[in-house]
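Lecture notes, continued. The same structure-token format from the folding unit now serves as the input rather than the output. Read the line below as a description of shape only.
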């Protein structure tokens, strides 16, 4: 298979190449990995490979009319659903099922890409199971999920699992350099470090702020300062401003804040701090203003929020929880 547009993930590519070399693509896959890890890129390539009209050589060729339509998102035999962030209902799955019985227009296959597959409730998943089991032979199903364990075992057992992995830092940096030739190298390097191998997160960092992650870092410091102040209104105001952020960027913010809170905890216990001055001031102030118990509860709570941000919580919910949690643990009542 031609998968060079997917960065990193060498073992996954080997798995797919081995498999397609032997018996072609399977009819149902679960693509899983955190938000921003490349599920959609991979789904796009698999869908293109399924409709590609090339007869010799690796697919997708990315050149034939079918591939171009697939990559442009306008191929009539590739159907996408679940991308609107809402729950996927049983009615939606049933309508996919009726659609699946209409033969493909142009391609030999008809491909269904189900984003946020974890947002199908049990009855929607059971309807999906039926479709996987009894659907027409030309049907192919790509289920995208942040976490495959959110899907029923019966659904999982009908699909092949493709797990996206974080990309190594040098590879992430090289890709970012290619994609953002105008950004300063230092900004790209910082984004490559901060994204934890999740390229979507690196993009969110870079597109959020030309200073590449600068906004995330500055906001994490401000959040720590306001938690040290224990002023509810100031916390509210800060959190309200985060509602417009992408989920990936919020995740990065949570990670940054957790690491600052842990620094404060360590500093309070006597650890030396080696960092730039604003960070030093914020961390040592937090160590003075908040007790070790408060700090460790904060770290736990923020960690829970970070897990929620990896599942399917929207930005509005996340910032609401962030506000409630930080206020509960730090606000001083006079
Ligand atoms: Zn092609």
């Amino acid at each position: 298979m031609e998968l060079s547009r997917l960065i990193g993930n060498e073992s996954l590519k080997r798995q797919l190449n081995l498999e397609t070399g032997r018996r072609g693509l399977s009819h149902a896959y679960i693509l899983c990995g955190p938000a921003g890890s490349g599920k959609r890129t991979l789904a796009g390539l698999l869908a293109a490979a399924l409709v590609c009209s090339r007869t010799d050589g690796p697919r997708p060729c990315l050149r034939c009319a079918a591939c171009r339509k697939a990559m442009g998102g306008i191929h009539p035999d590739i159907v996408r659903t679940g991308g609107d962030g809402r729950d996927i209902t049983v009615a939606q799955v049933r309508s996919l099922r009726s659609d699946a019985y209409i033969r493909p227009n142009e391609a030999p296959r008809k491909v269904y890409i189900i984003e946020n597959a974890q947002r199908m409730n049990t009855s929607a998943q059971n309807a999906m199971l039926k479709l996987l089991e009894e659907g027409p032979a030309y049907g192919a199903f790509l289920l995208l999920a942040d976490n495959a364990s959110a899907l029923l075992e019966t659904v999982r057992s009908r699909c092949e699992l493709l797990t996206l992995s974080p990309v190594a830092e040098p590879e992430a940096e090289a890709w970012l350099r290619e994609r953002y030739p105008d950004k300063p190298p230092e900004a790209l390097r910082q984004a490559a470090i901060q994204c934890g191998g999740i390229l979507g997160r690196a993009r969110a960092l870079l597109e959020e702020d030309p200073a590449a992650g600068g906004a995330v870092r500055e906001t994490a410091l401000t959040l720590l300062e306001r938690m040290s102040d224990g002023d509810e209104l100031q916390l509210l105001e800060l959190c309200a401003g985060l509602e417009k952020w992408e989920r990936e960027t919020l995740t990065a913010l949570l990670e940054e804040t957790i690491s600052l809170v842990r620094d404060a905890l360590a500093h309070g216990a006597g650890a030396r701090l080696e960092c730039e001055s604003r960070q030093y001031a914020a961390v040592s102030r937090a160590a003075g203003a908040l007790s070790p118990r408060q700090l460790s509860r904060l770290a736990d709570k923020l960690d829970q929020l970070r897990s929620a941000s990896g599942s399917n919580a929207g930005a509005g919910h996340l910032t609401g929880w962030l506000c409630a949690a930080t206020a509960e643990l730090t606000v001083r009542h006079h």
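Point for the exam: The chain is about 55% helix and 5% strand.
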